[in-house]
Amino acid sequence: MTDLIEMNKVIGAGLENQYCRMSLQKVGGEGMFWSYRSDSKSGIWCSHSDWNHGVTEITAIESLSMIADDLLPTLVAAMFSAVSIPFIKDINTQSAECCLLDGIYPVVQCQGYEFVLVGFNATWLKRLTTNWTRFSGQSIKVDVPLVAGYTTDIESITQGNGVWLREGLNPDEGKAILWWDKPLAIVQFEGGESWSVEHVFAPYSFSEAVSYIQIASLEVNLPDLLQLMEGQTIEAPLTCETASKLVFNNQSIAAGELLVSQDGVLFYTNDTITRAA
Q: Are 162 and 194 in contact, with CB atoms under 8 Å apart?
């Protein structure tokens, strides 16, 4: 989340040079990966279809089988040099099959094709785009869990006991926690698709594994999510869960119920939990 906030500060709604545009987009799937300076964690990812479109755009040849292998390094340089020629000199010309995990990445859009910059931090992107100019691209939306509270006590839940939730909130009062890897803010339902931000949590990291109780999700504009301020009103459609669900490692592992009292909010489940480790 912190990395995404910093990247949004650099890229904003979008950047462009005379050859291409860059913006944060949701992307993932099967494709090809070219490593940067032999680092398997950073480089360029491109879907198979965009690679084919790029080759056709540059060479006017529609079939890759008609291109000699010794021309592929030249094609790699031609396709990706729109970002920066010095940068491309450090890109491995040999690709590897790669499934990119679904997520939000800097996406570079050229004439007829696009590719993804993977594993680069905001400081690096800022240096890369020093002479780029801003443009107003389409804002992307992300589904963000609405949470009644969280716990580190999975063991008690697996034994059939209820647990008191940290930062427990009563959903019947229209309050919940916006969650993205950790608590972001407490929001209050105002009516329609309007939500007021009552409290923004200070950035911190958990020292132990955490599970949260998801009751719904909001479809939030990414810029709104990354720039939350107390007193702010955001517009976001709501999707409710059929039951309160216990989420661990981004996977629902049990459905359960919430009990609300003056002492707080308690969660319990009768489901068998198989993925609590």
A: no
User: Is-contact 153 181, C-beta < 8 A?
Assistant: no
Res 276 pLDDT > 50: no
Domain that holds residue 238: 141-268
For 215-227, write each residue's pLDDT tens digit.
999 999 888 888 8
Cβ proximity of 248 and 267 under 8 Å: no
Co-location of 7 and 97 in the same domain: yes
Tell me how many domains the chain contains.
Answer: 2
Q: Which residues pair with 185 in a beta bridge?
A: 178, 200
The tokens for 274 are: 């198989």
Of 48-57, 70-79, 146-155, 183-192, the one with minimum mean pLDDT is 70-79
Residue 185 sits in the same domain as residue 82: no
Is there a contact between 259 and 265 (Cβ–Cβ < 8 Å)? yes
Residue 231: which of 178, 179, 186 has the closest Cα?
186
Q: Which helix (H) or strand (E) holds 109?
A: strand 96-110
pLDDT > 90 in the chain, percent? 64
pLDDT at 67: 74
- Percentages helix, strand, coil for the chain, rounded to the nearest 5? 20, 45, 30
The reported pTM is 0.74
